[in-house]
Amino acid sequence: QVQVVESGGGLVQAGGSLRLSCAVSGSIISINDMGWYRQAPGKQRELAATITSGGSSYHTDSVKGRFTISRDNAKNTVYLQMNSLKPEDTAVYYCKVSCVRYRGGTYQYWGQGTQVTVSS
Q1: Are 98 and 4 in contact (CB under 8 A)?
Q2: Which residues does 13 contact at the CB level (< 8 Å), separation at least 6?
Q3: Per residue in 9-19, pLDDT tens?
């Protein structure tokens, strides 16, 4: 079993900040790429940022300069620091991780999502 649990969402005014966390636990050997996605009402889920096990990160243009992805490999946790939030950042934010399992193989797992609402 692998558990992926996000936290840190909430309601914030435009211009404010939030920090999301995603903790991974269970029968895993290691975690490869970790990423944050978001899905706004009526829209498809989209990528926000990813980070490799070595710490190389990628941010989409829509969040670049405002959001920062990071990870703590010792804690099997990935973070998304979100600054200068805009109403259009309102969405459910999901964590996706690529895990190497003890039973063999690499699998993708999603968290349950955490709501971020930015008021104008």
Answers
A1: no
A2: 118, 119
A3: 999 999 999 99
